[in-house]
Amino acid sequence: MHTSPTQAVVLAGGQGSRLRPYTDDRPKPMVEIPGTGTPIIGHQLSWLASEGVTDAVVSCGHLAEVLQDWLESAELPLRVTTVVESEPLGRGGGLKYAAAHLPEPGQPWYATNGDIWTRFSLRDMAEFHAERDATATLALARPRIPWGAVETDAFGHITDFIEAPPSPYLINAGVYVFSADFTDQLPERGDHERTTFPRLARERRLAGYPLPQGAYWRAIDTAKDLTEAAKELAGTRT
Asked: What is the separation of C-alpha 170 from the centre of its chain, rounded to a whole number of angstroms?
């Protein structure tokens, strides 16, 4: 019988240079969504707990002590362990190092990038992962293009203007389900998206889970993203 993971890794070591000055004195996941009183990682941990996660490993980096202090003082809905790389290991190596601290290494696990604010059913994604017998499953988003698009006919006449249409391409949404044996396939150092993921794709063991229609997803990369997220949140409350 399929059971959903109860453990997760949150990758929270990014510097967030495009979010300055917000990140001058705090790591990117500690930036607050305006109007919520809660940093991005607080929203993430609440979401993970609501989806059945009981234990999370938070991988810290830039200004790690700020994040660790907040985690120690906050009332959290799940158990949290923090890890800090003593030397840079790359994305794949860092993920492997964090996964080594999960409480149940022989069980599947979730992972999420620390700058993602999203809401959808992780349990449904885990079921999708199990049905395909995948080693790794990536959530896939179709973000809106930030510019207005123009449609033309075959002769070159403009036929329509579309404000911020959805991208025609799916992107890696920064949320994952991993089988237990995925950890051993990660590099000790380097980028798993250039090594492990391509190999799994060739072996048809890498799955892509499109986010459900209407699911909320936003990567918080810039000050504009913060503003838009606050507007969207306000809209859901009215």
From this structure: 15
